[in-house]
Structure to design on (808 residues):
């Protein structure tokens, strides 16, 4: 089940972007597992990648290619992560890019490769090579839904969103898709997410913008504290909307930034709503902290606590577990000043249960599918907000049976 | 189920220690929930406590009492943690100690109180007061098994062990009991553990010794990364074995230290073997690390990974999850040099799957109930070893249903 997540009926095309998804046979179940995204010439492309030391071969190659040439194609396969595959993994990733370049008559460095799926198995490059002619033949502007479905692994819902805004009386479109349901605590970037706009914007500002929106969206979610080896988030701008190119942080930039932020926040939260086994969508808000880092540390400690997560699954207002998690977060505060809320209900004040709190109030909040946990540290003025899911039987089931 | 953990048939008395356990009615199921431990006069007592900021009222009071007077009694209740209870909690803990002191005609500061159970409910002191006459009447030297059972909460097995050694041709006995099955990542001390010896040893050395053995035993286990609000480990020495008092780290100290270390390691591992829902007992060994802290960081990152834990539950040699956890541990190393082993089987070398590794080898190790995961970082000469359990349906079940 997915918590309050409805699949989009349609996604808007972005001028200058064409997509396709085909069956290469990498996944066992014969669904689309190879996605190709084409960027028109003169497009700008920015990306952030996982910080996992064991990052996958395609991550290393995509980073290098992004730095050395203008990106024309993204090649994404699901069903195999090409991670933990050593030198062979790098050869396979390179060979995939060369195959795309041969078809497109461009340079191999203009291809960014992405892989998602099981870690530690060699990528079946020959299957990818065989499927490429069909992938090129199918490229179309209106294939965002098909591409979104093609990158899914344990996801139960397609995750995508479109928004439009006006810049200098030109209509600018932003469309994004993402995938991810487990092994989720992005660190720098996340799972796989592709966001495109036809706005014209300089590469430098595009990269700035991506980093800012990722920090408050993809880098603020966690399912299970596990940072994937393959996380990546790509932001593309084709410049075909007709607006004058944005080269400074002016009103146009802010307008575009706000829409991009909304899109990435939606996509990041969609991952949590569809998290493996999730029955609850939890917002953790830490306020009045000394630093943002401390606020995030407290939020993540609560979000990762298996005991808090199982209590949320059981709809049990066992708030002592929240208190215990806050207490071990390694952040300094005065017991008497801290306040903890479930929704609008104060549960902890003055070092213990709030005098006005009743179990009935707690139960009422816990019965909801979307729950806000707010912690006020009263040690400063910083705050942080992160999103997470509960820990259910199905999380264990999905992850115990993943490869079988 | 408990992994390879057999309850002791008997535990040896320790001269100078008497124990009892009675039904005070704090637990709902009318089993023994109040334990009294008496130390003979002139006994030495050392303790380490949880570092959780929200530590329980009895923890605060026990610390203060231990520092101010010679301990004569430990009063331990299960079924209620007296944590998150603010000022009322401190009053309740004090009143419990005063009640014991009145019976024993000693000072209230000579009582150390301990509580374990649900967080956030007031301690029913009147029930404790009513049960105390019976608790005093039942005090006996041979009641270690009864006391061990009286401190259990979600434990499925009594955890206890006895060992003897010779010091200056005198027989010295060490007996210990512990409880704990969830909310387990001790930080400084753990759950509840009581170890007693009749050896004569100075208080200073006793505290030193406790800190050293706790670091390699109770502070090296984790079930779910949750540090309890009530963790405590107490080491008592009555001095009645007849050995000359140990006042320096001589051969006698080392002989006693080794036995105490063996006892605390057994008790710590017993907690993991009986961890909530555990079907596997996992040893994580990190070698050739730059610092012990880095070795522990890598070990704990793998031990806390829900994806690694569910793969272990499923007996799935999905070693990519181990590699991904090592990669996100935040410790620097060279991908090409690191090696990861399942048991004696090398799974990762040279940045990817070891060439000689086969899935059959991995499956054979994963089918076992006790599994060693070894990670060689090759960044220095330090190492660490910690113990953990897997993540099963039953962990979720036990913790989703704990209060219902």
């Amino acid at each position: 089940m997915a918590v309050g997540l409805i699949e989009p009926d349609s996604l808007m095309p972005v001028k200058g972007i064409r997509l396709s998804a085909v069956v290469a046979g990498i996944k066992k179940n014969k669904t689309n597992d190879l996605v190709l995204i084409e960027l028109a010439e003169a497009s700008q492309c920015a990306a952030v990648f996982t910080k996992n030391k064991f990052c996958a071969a395609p991550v290393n190659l995509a980073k290098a290619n992004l730095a050395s040439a203008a990106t024309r194609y993204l090649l994404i396969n699901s069903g195999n992560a090409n991670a933990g595959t050593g030198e062979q993994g790098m050869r396979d990733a390179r060979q995939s890019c060369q195959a795309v370049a041969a078809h497109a008559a461009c340079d191999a460095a203009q291809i960014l490769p992405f892989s998602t799926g099981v870690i530690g198995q060699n990528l079946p490059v020959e299957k990818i090579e065989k499927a490429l002619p069909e992938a090129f033949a199918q490229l179309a502007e209106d294939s965002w839904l098909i591409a979104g479905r093609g990158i899914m692994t344990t996801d139960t819902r397609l995750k995508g969103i479109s928004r439009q805004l006006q810049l200098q009386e030109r209509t600018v479109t932003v469309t994004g898709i993402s995938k991810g349901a487990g092994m989720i605590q992005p660190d720098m970037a996340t799972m796989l997410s592709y966001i495109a706009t036809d706005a014209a914007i300089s590469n430098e500002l595009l990269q700035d913008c991506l980093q800012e929106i990722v920090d408050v969206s993809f880098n603020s979610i966690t399912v299970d504290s596990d940072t994937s080896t393959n996380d990546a988030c790509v932001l593309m701008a084709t410049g075909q909307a007709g607006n004058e190119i944005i080269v400074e942080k002016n009103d146009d930039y802010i307008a575009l930034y706000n829409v991009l932020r909304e899109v990435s926040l939606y996509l990041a939260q969609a991952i949590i709503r569809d998290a493996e086994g999730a029955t609850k969508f939890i917002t953790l808000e830490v306020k009045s902290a000394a630093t943002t880092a401390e606020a995030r540390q407290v939020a993540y400690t609560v979000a990762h606590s298996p005991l808090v997560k199982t209590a949320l699954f059981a709809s049990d207002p066992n708030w002592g577990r929240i208190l215990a998690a806050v207490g071990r977060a390694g952040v300094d505060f005065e017991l008497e000043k801290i306040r903890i809320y479930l929704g609008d209900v104060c549960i902890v004040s003055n070092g213990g249960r709030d005098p006005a709190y009743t179990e009935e109030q707690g139960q009422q909040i816990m019965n909801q599918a979307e729950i806000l946990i707010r912690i006020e540290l009263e040690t400063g003025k910083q705050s942080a907000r992160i999103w997470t899911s509960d820990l259910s039987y199905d999380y264990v089931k999905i992850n115990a049976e993943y490869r079988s």
